[in-house]
Structures
1.
Amino acid sequence: MTTPALGIQDITFATAHHRLDLDLLAQHLGIDPAKFSVGIGQEAMSLPAEDEDVVTMGATAAARILADNDVEGLRTLIFATESGIDQSKAAGVHVAALLGLPAQIRVLETKQACYSGAGALQLALGVVARHPEEKVLVIASDVARYDLDSPGEPTQGAAAVTFLVQADPALLEVEPASGVHTADVPDFWRPNHRVTALVEGKFSISAYMDALEGAWEDYRAHGGAAFEEIDAFCYHQPFTMMAVKAHQRLRRHVGASLPKAQVVEELAPTVGYNRVVGNSYTASVFLALLALLDGDADLTGQRIGIFSYGSGAVSEFFSVRVLPGYRAHLHRAEHAAQLAAREPVDVPRYRELHPGTAVSDAEQQANPRVTAGPYRFVGIEGGVRRYEATGA
Ligand code: HMG
């Protein structure tokens, strides 16, 4: 019996209602806007409205997948996030209810900083390998928040990526080889009482690059393709210049160095979404993949190398093959429309929307109706979070 290919049938993203242009933030901070647009490679960030969170963004992206695919056999939903909304209940349980999924489904949440979306993909492949007739919905959804006036501030953002994992997929085959790397490093973390992350910025950059070398070597040791057999590379992008730094490092590591300008050009097809959305933690590496897939180039048959890094730190390098006919399954128009529809805010409004440092202990909260999306976070009643479909 031949083993069927396993991989991704469909993938899409949703983002938040508001947008802050980083030129405005630079002006407010009295610094050269080129530090953001050129230095870290960011133009804008997505910001959730008061009635949006990881659940509403995740449900929005997941609804598109459910509408466009046969989901017979869907029995697992994995919600990957590092900005979860409860210490006990998986955010995916709210999503399952909003989407009207049958009760015969297992739902769980994964966490390991920005890595847990890629980790969820590997877990999903394990389920499908054991039960090829089953499908798994993975939702990677995050709101990245740093303190106001901190160096991390321009790297905030918000988005959810959702994908359907199954046997005989239409879009991407995930190759079996994968390289993993874990090191206990204090580069970025978020204690339970904080909404905003704590970070050692410069150290986090070097921890990321050390992890890349470690995961790459493990990928090669486990039968992964040689560098020159990989047609394109997608990196976790906390800010898009991080991908450039990482790829320069990998190129140097394998003895294929190129000048920075050429590496910038090489990665250009992967940065378009992250540049305007900001860091979306677990979703970020998949936004890089989506930018590449949604681009004009025909990628049929190509191998894409993917590096996921989650501070703390766990990382993985793996590869996918783009399947014939993949373009019929893309959501380019929805992605473009969604980005264009974001309502711009000025700096005073952005600062008002910023939740501050401490986690709120509110047990009663009524959220204003703002989002134009199909699901909203209504508020908190007696400590219970309430969500609803908006009809949009
Ligand atoms: P900073 O200290 O404000 O920035 O923080 P800088 O002074 O280092 O400048 C940044 C770059 O802009 C430099 O380029 C400057 O030269 C350049 P580089 O030396 O890096 O090539 N620059 C300019 N360029 C053009 N025109 C100008 C100009 N001025 C300066 N006028 C930092 C930067 C990234 C550290 C900060 O934003 C931060 O702390 N961010 C959050 C942490 C982060 O994103 N770390 C990335 C690796 S860890 C990771 O990816 C995991 C994460 O996603 C979390 C998770 O896993 O859950 C964060």
2.
Amino acid sequence: MSLPRIAVLASGRGSNLQAILDAIASQQLAAHVVGVFSDKPGCAALNRVDEARRWALDAKQLSSRAAFDEALTQAVAATAPDWVVCAGFMRILGDGFVARFADRLLNIHPSLLPKYKGLHTHRRALEAGDSEHGASVHWVIPALDAGEVIAQTRIPILPDDTPETLAARLLPCEHQLLVTVLQRAVSGQLSPPASPRL
Ligand code: GRF
């Protein structure tokens, strides 16, 4: 039987991607990462897989947002993924991409959604005086960080936390959350939300 195929979109260091790769290597996750796709050709995430599985395109080289979206859609589709995971992908996905993969498209976001969509989530949680922080894995819809939440992880905010200490303490919890959700996904235990997402 062939393994479930996971495509990962990433723009930065790729620690969430690494958590997926490690879970596969240690047989906690029965899946295969079929490709890593990035809008940042030099990013560290790409180097976590062999060259044959890397795809990157600098959006600045293209004439339009739609051109990048189309190229990304074609490249991801060519790997026939069962699941597409945005793991630190810092570009807003186009509607065409979301429509194509909506029933298998997940994102990990470092906040307790619906709080703090977008950037600087750790700082915003501290500024708000929150007593806890966390991360969410959610279905992707065209609106940023707004799709239905599948699962969350929570940590307490400590009195002397800074955005950096909070981010560092949350990161391993994020990794575990993402792997747990993917275990559910690849074993057929994740039902798409009942309501249409587009
Ligand atoms: C993570 O905090 C993720 O939740 C957010 O961006 C960060 C990416 O980290 N979307 P990494 O590239 O996976 O190390």
3.
Amino acid sequence: MQNINGKTKLYGLIANPVEHTKSPLIHNGISDLLGINSVYLPFLVKDSLEEAINGAKALNIQGLNVTIPYKQDVIKYLDEIDQEAKEIGAVNTIIIKNDKLIGYNTDARGLARDCKRQGVSFDNKNVCILGAGGAANAVAILCAKSNVNKLYIVNRTMSKAETLRDMIRMYYKSLDITCLSYDDIYKIDDIDICVQTTSLGMSPYIDRSPIDNNEFFEKLEVVVDIVYNPRQTKFLKDAAKHGVMIINGLGMLYYQAVEAYEIWNDIVISDQDIEIGYLALQDNVYSCN
Ligand code: NAP
């Protein structure tokens, strides 16, 4: 990390818990690479979100990332919210500028950039999202913006899948969306891309996948698991056995951070520097695996 002085700009993440975050590694790594005089710190916010936000403003913090459990609650403390964050219904990035707080959500664009890098397009595809939680909202908005042909939302709790469908339809009225139970997805045979957004597959559920009938993978082209640790979840391993292209969640994590960095600094980071940062993150996360 470079020398900290009176001109160092401060950024951070507010979350609870915060100790396992990889965001400081990504952001401070990019600052080092680009020679930008800024520092990024994790902030544990136990309960008083409003005070944390006011404190950030008072301390001239330039920008914040926001994650669990504050992505929705933080909206009421912001002066403006970007259209995509509004559609997703959550904010993961705040820029503090001229005494104003403006909220963005970079999760969908993060996943879009990683898929593009890997040569995967959602355009005109039939996409299935497993899960209907916060991350699924961002993936569903990406699907809506990417001109998918059909969208299937599969969730254990059907009412949450229906709520997500209704939220998406508020903005994308003509999108063909079907909500399904896990039993029903085995009856569907026109899915091209499946995005796994549940927490199954990560610790302590590393032996679990939401898909228990592997015939499901036979007709798919691509599966994405937004979980990044372990590197290959059970879901990805099962898909790979059927010759399906697999993408894990590390790229989404990385590119949502790159997008935030670009918003805060009003820059476009070169592909070469982006690749260097990604390889450094990958080494750090998987060096023990
Ligand atoms: P969330 O809002 O809590 O949603 C969790 C989802 O998982 C819900 O749809 C829930 O279904 C489902 N689920 C949980 N346990 C299940 C089980 N036993 N069987 C079937 N479904 C189950 O969480 P989130 O914020 O969306 O995050 C989900 C995952 O995505 C986490 O692992 C998170 O780390 C990861 N993530 C990764 C990135 C990235 O950048 N790579 C970004 C965001 C999130 P019900 O509705 O039925 O409870």
